[in-house]
Every structure is written in structure tokens, then in C-alpha cells.
Amino acid sequence: MGNRYRAFMRKLESITHLEHWQIIAILMTFYDAVVMAGSYFFGLWLRFDGMYSAIPLNYLDAYRQFILWYVAVGIIAFWALRMYKDIWRFASINMLARTVLVSFLASVCHSVSITLIHGHMPITYHLVGALFQMGFMIAIRFFYRLVQYVRSMRRRTDATTGRVMLIGAGAAGQMILRDLNSAQETNDRVVCVIDDNPNKWHRDFGGVPVVGGRDDIMQAVAKYRVNKIFLAIPSASPENRRDILNICNETGCELKQLPGMYQFVLGEIKATSMRKVSVEDLLGRESIRADMTEVFNYINQKVVMVTGGGGSIGSELCRQIAAHQPKQLIIFEVYENNAYDIQNELKRKYPDLNLVTLIGSIRDSRRIFQVFDQYKPQIVYHAAAHKHVPLMEDSPCEAIKNNTIGTYKTAYAAMVHGCERFVLISTDKAVNPTNIMGASKRMCEMIMQSFDAMIKQGRAREIPQLFTHVGIENADKDGTGSIFENIRTEFVAVRFGNVLGSNGSVIPLFKRQIEAGGPVTVTHPDIIRYFMTIPEAVSLVMLAGTYAKGGEIFVLDMGNPVKIDTLARNLIKLSGYKPDVDIKIEYTGLRPGEKLYEEKLMAEEGLKKTENELIHIGVPIKFDTAAFFASLAPLMDAAYSNKSNIRELVAGIVGTYKPEGVHPKAVKDETYQRLVHEADQ
Q: Model-level pTM greater than 0.70?
């Protein structure tokens, strides 16, 4: 039947050269004309016991003379009211109400007009005609919906049908349920509904039973043989969503959820808009939703430079900056492939962007000076750094050359070339570091604080310049010190946790291991980390550029920490496997310099609030700036000489650095126990 109908419609389309909906509209016009004429004749015929010969001639003449005018005017009115432009597949309550209203008004006009023109007609004529007209008009408009429903019911008797548990008996859930009932492209069928509101329990939701709250999920999955779970609560808090998803994750069912409130508000919720649950959804932390208007107003029409612009954080910085009309964006990157990728992406997306992509190393002070001298960046986001803890433990001098000395050279070049703000991207590994990478980043923070302190004291010229080749990079070329007059650069640092999805982060590693069939390697069953997304990290960096007064270390409140072991197990479950059954988990032991947990602040640092309640400022720790500056030249010489005692030299500068590491049992102190409790919540 369906194939014959489609073949007929295709033939009509080829003959008439009309669109499918236009052909349907024309056919509906003829149908309505027949219904309008036939309904009132049927009312007259019924009044006289179904005998045509018994109908008085005056009634027949009145009907014949009036009906053609009524049909013509009615059809014109229906077209004017766009009654033939509805999409029949999605016939709704709104369409029903409009059809009833239009048919009722047409019947009233019919009765009034024929009475005024031709006199009295039988009551049955008016009532039966109006009711039949309305009934047949409604029937045809919902007939397609009924056919689709019957077809979907037939399809769903197939053994391959997806048996869906819908979580959320609200407006969003209703949209999903309705879409699944009418969808042709899926065999999914909702078999039960979960909602935490007890008032909805043991009642029907669109013909589907509401079987209980989240505590009944496991039992309902077994009872109704559920193999898919759709979470349709767009307004749920991250904590609630995490708790529900963690229960669902134990069922082994395929999990999907709505993208968020945005689609709900726009009415764009469909079964096809459901997205797979990601491991990020299981972290249960509210994303930072800062008002970025001030940030982008500050960036607008400024020359902005991003070092390490091809990396995970650097490239996202470039994307957000490019979207808000900088005067010029300079990408500075040592790795040409990354630079090439982000350059092409931005050129394609922002053809009018004044984009400069430069290859170079922050270690090369001559190259850095050349770039700052030529382009005069007003804002610098310093994302260039070596970040991999184990690799840096094996090559400690490289961490110092690139992270510490490279940051110093870049900061110095920014200072003497009129840069307004210099924002360093730091890490929570800089707090009480047990690895050389964290210690090198702590020294970067100390550089920011030292530069800022000297500038505020008017002693910028006393900041020593570090270079391995005395030459064109010498700032004070004429020896007068005039270049140090009116220095106004503000130096700040932004401290991060681990970034989800960044290069070298643990989640991509776990995914590759799962795809390979395992095992998934976790360093320690008790290891704990804070996590944030790349967009959150970039928002924080950019906010630091507007909140900055100079010398601050901005710290994000990253919510509860997460056990890496739990993260690995959740990722295995989301991939459709069972941990330790389908995919093994192996514990490899803490790597050199690795801690069980990372801290956001040192014990001696305090916190000050900012305009954003999730962003705080660490009060700078006092240290001997002169001694710090004096120690950097010997440190640079030792690093470039690849001295084996580099860790001892760093420990002499960063008092909180413990290069010998800490045994896992020794760090299970009160702080660790508190973090474990938070992670379990």
C-alpha cells in the first residue's frame, strides 16, 4: 500500500511539476469541498429518513443555489488561513484546535447566510451538516498520523526493537516520547519511564507506565528488558545528572541524553538530537559560565599574541580571540604541524582576520625580541610549555630551558616592548611540586610575581636580562636605560587542573587502550585529580586578562576531585564493556615525581574573591626577589650545560620542591582523606 502510494505521488509530481506538499494541498482542497457539500446534503437527506424523493423542493432548491457559493468562499478562506500548509506527519493539538475553530465558524456562517437568503432550513440540516463537516475535516488531517503510528507498532514487534527507558516525565520527555512514536527511521520504543516525583509514579505518561524514581532504575531495566536509556531532564543540575548517569552506567545499557536547555527552549528536542553520554558528564561539576563581554571588549581591536598557539589550550585561545575582532592575532608556535592546522582553520572560518602565524621557540631570545619589536603585541597569552611529567623527569634540563628560562625571556621581551598584559598559564602541579615540570612552572609563577613587583616599585631596569648570545636582543642598546621608562606591563598567572581532551591527557589514552582491547593502565588505585574542560580553561585565562591588577595567581574552584580509577571504569562502561571482565585494569605504580593528589594552593597562600564566585586569587607568597633573580643565570647555565645536579639547583630556588618524591603512603594525610571523601560524593 505504502509503495503504491509513493509510486502514484511520484507520477503526479512528474506530470504536474509540483512539489509533494503542493499536490497534497490540492487534493485536500478537493476533499474539503466534497466534505462541505456532502455533509450538509447528508443532513438534509437524513432529516427525511434517507429518502431523496421525500425532500421538499424548496429545501433542495435552497441547498443547490447556496452550496456552491459556500464551498467556494470556504475554500478561499481556508487557503487564506494557511490550512493547507501544515505538515500532516506532525499533526498536533494546535492543528486540531484550528481545524475545529475554522470548521465551527464556517458552519455558523453557513447557517446564518442560508437562513437570511433562502429562509428556514431543518434543524437536522444545520446540526448534522456541521458535525459531519467538522468530523471529516479532522479525520483526514490526523489519518496520516494514525497510519504512521500503526506502521511503527508493526515495526516494533521486530526482535531488534530498541527498548528504551525514558528518565524524566516532563515536557522534554514528552517531546522525545512523541518523536519516537512518530519516527520512521528508528525501531526504538519507550517501555517505561523514571521520574523522581512520587506524584507521577504508577501513572501513565503518554501511554507508558511511570515505574518509579532513580532508585528503581536497576530493577526496571531487568523487568522491562531495557537496552537503551534516554535522560531527558535538561534542567537537571550537574550533580543530579552525574548521580543518575552513574546508576545508569551500571546497567550496561546504551546511554543518551539531551544536549541541554538551549535545545529545549528552542523546541528542537527530538530523538535524533540525543547525544551519547561522555565521561565528562560523569564528573558532575557545573561548567564555568562567565560573562565574557568584558573580556572581548578588552580584546577588541588589540594586537594579541598566543605562544604555543597550536597546542590544546593555545589553539582554543586563538579560536575564541579570533571570534571577537582583534586588531591582529599572532600565533607563535615551535611545532609547524600544529601551527599549520590552526592557521588553516582560522583562515577558513574568519577570512577577514588579520592573522600572523610564526614559527619559533621561546628559548630563542633573539627571535622573541624580533617578533615583539616588529608586531608590538599588547596582550600575550603564554601557553608554550613542556607539560608531560614523566618525560620531563627524564629530561629535567629541557623543562628548565623551555618552561622557566623560555618564560623569562618572553616576559622580558613583552615588558620592554610595551605589552599591556602578560598572562601565564600555570598548573596545579606547581603547588608543592614533586616533579621538575611542576617546579619549573612554580618558577614561572615566581617570575610573574617578581616582574610585577619590580615594575610597581619603578625598578624595571634592575630586572636582569637573560640571554645565551649577547647581541641584538640586548634591550638597553644605547646604555641610557630610557627603554625602562614608563613600563606598565601587568604580569599574572592562571593555575589549572587537568584538562579533559588535551594532548597527553589521560582520557584519550584510556580510549586508545579500550579500542585496542585493553588493558587500561592506571598508575595507582587511589590517585586523585581535578579536571576541567578546554573551554573552561580558556575562559579562565581570558578572564585573568581583565581581572588582572598585576602579580596575581588566579585559581579555579574546580569542584570535587575525581578518582582516576573511577574515571577509567566509567569510560570502559560507556564503551559497552565490563571493567575487569571485558577490559582489564592494570595498576602500574606512581611514576617518578607523581603525587597521589594535586593541590590548588600552597598552605601559606590565602584566597581572595573575584567577581566570579568560581574564580579566586591566591595571595602572592613573599620571597626574596633579588635572590631569586640572582639564581636564574646560574640555573640557565646549568640547564644549557645539561648538568646532572639541576634538581638540586631548582630545590634551592623553590623551597617547596621535593625532588626525591614522596612515597604514596606518606601523602595519605588529612588533605588526602578530605579529597577522597569529596571524590566519593
A: no
